[in-house]
Write a structure and sequence with these properties.
single chain, 3 domains, 13 helices, about 20% helix, globular
């Protein structure tokens, strides 16, 4: 009886609509038995290159020869015990995104390099120049002169079309062993707590990514670029199946900026400080669950303010796509272009509204007055500018920041004390509110220095004699 019932059940299911499409079936041909990623690799691998960076690193002198007592005997001009420079070589990967020789890689692969060489899969080597390097996205765009030759290049995919579970391949040069391909799936999307870039919105994959893979390609099954491999989570330095890639939509924005010719990224500016909606905050706002991004501060010239939004509003959607965090909203705006318009959904109280915002450049509300300091002082080697929303955007500071900011630190005494993004507060009791204040303070040529700087929300005091 049981066999009869089973046979009848199978017959009924087999006749049901859609059964043939959903039931698992045995392979019908040898081709189906030998399914392979090889066709995808053949399309994508020729566009993935090796990037060799050479950097001169200053070795600090020993403590013994830093002591004035020993300098009296060995002298300041002798080479014995003096700082020396050594050559440091690093290896990364890159992706050809334009047949003329435009290559994208990670900024940390090329940062500070005095010489860059790109090695193609056919082992030809070329000197490369940096078209654009962006610390905030950890992306850099390089160019090699192919003298009219056309190279294999990867087309960009829309990274917003990725779904968790999609098959992907990671291509790069891990540990310098040569071009390597690993496979995996998209493990997660919109990872925002990686701590690698300002625009934290990463693709997570279990395709093996190791040192040397940085700047390599993450491709989909159509052989299109969906991400640039950037970081791994590991306690040993090797792959444990948790790798992170910068989405291709952000990569394309940086490449487009590099090809514009002025060497700068023109990002849309919102003049807003956002914070994630926590469970407690959601409860106080009457939200059914934690979602969106709360407007904590709003610059008077913000395009959000111009569209009618206010402090306390919660951004819950952008162009019909739900917003889950402040990082997601910043990322999606960051992939837009100045001059475009975006539709924003937001919640105020227990009501939801829609607004159209214009993507604009950060305003220059104060003249920059840039100054490359060459004075005989601890400041020798820095570049300072007056803060405005435009300058604050470039250095990654709050739009409301005011005063004088260090926008570059060159080779000189200043690199021992200052970092890019430091806010100058005072010099020898003189408040520094504009670049001219610093000029006046240095013109006094004091014998000792008392310097106050703002860094990461804290005040640091430096005393030198």
């Amino acid at each position: 009886m049981l066999r009869i019932i089973t046979a009848l059940l199978i017959a009924v299911l087999a006749s049901a609509p859609g059964f043939a499409q959903t039931a698992k079936q045995a392979p019908h041909s040898r081709a189906e038995v030998t399914l392979s990623f090889a066709p995808v690799v053949k399309r994508a691998a020729p566009a993935v290159v090796n990037v060799y960076a050479k950097t001169l690193v200053a070795q600090r002198e020993t403590d013994m020869f830093a002591d004035p007592f020993f300098r009296r005997f060995f002298g300041d001009n002798g080479s014995f015990g003096r700082p020396r420079e050594r050559v440091q070589n690093s290896l990364g990967s890159g992706v050809i995104v334009d047949p003329s020789g435009t290559i994208v890689t990670n900024n940390h692969v090329v940062a500070g390099a005095t010489e860059l060489r790109v090695v193609l899969p056919d082992k030809r080597e070329f000197e490369a120049k940096v078209l654009l390097a962006d610390e905030r996205t950890d992306l850099a765009v390089l160019k090699i002169d192919m003298k009219g030759e056309r190279l294999a290049a990867l087309p960009f995919a829309n990274s917003d079309d990725l779904e968790v579970g999609d098959l992907v391949l990671a291509i790069g040069n891990p540990f310098g062993v040569g071009q390597t391909v690993t496979s995996g799936i998209v493990s997660a999307l919109a990872r925002t707590r990686v701590g690698v870039t300002d625009y934290q919105f990463f693709i997570q994959t279990d395709a093996a990514i190791n040192p040397g893979n940085s700047g390599g390609a993450l491709v989909n099954m159509q052989g299109e670029l969906v991400g640039i491999n950037t970081a791994i989570f590991s306690k040993t330095g090797g792959s444990v199946g948790i790798g992170f890639s910068i989405p291709s939509n952000m990569v394309q924005t940086v490449v487009d900026s590099a090809e514009s010719g002025d060497g700068k990224i023109h990002r849309p500016w919102l003049g807003v400080q956002l914070q994630d909606v926590t469970p407690d905050l959601a409860d106080s706002l009457g939200l059914a669950r934690p979602e969106g991004a709360l407007i904590a501060k709003l610059h008077p010239k913000s395009p959000l303010a111009a569209a009618g939004l206010k402090r306390g509003d919660v951004l819950i959607g952008l162009e019909g796509r739900a917003i889950e965090s402040a990082q997601e909203f910043g990322f999606r705006i960051g992939t837009g272009k100045i001059g475009e318009r975006r539709i924003v959904d937001y919640r105020r109280g227990d009501q939801e509204f829609e607004a159209r915002i214009d993507l604009v450049a950060a305003p220059e509300t104060t003249p920059r007055d840039p100054w490359d300091v060459k004075a005989n002082s601890p400041f020798d080697g820095i570049t300072v500018e007056n803060l405005s929303p435009a300058v604050a955007e470039e250095v990654g500071m709050s739009a409301e920041s005011e005063g004088v900011v260090i926008t570059a630190v060159g080779n000189g005494p200043a690199q021992r004390f200052f970092k890019k993004g430091d806010l100058l507060l005072f010099v020898n009791r003189s408040e520094i509110t504009k670049v001219q204040d610093l000029r006046d303070a240095l013109a006094q040529q004091p014998s000792s220095w008392s310097i106050g700087i703002g860094r990461d929300g804290k005040q640091l005091n430096i005393r030198l004699r």
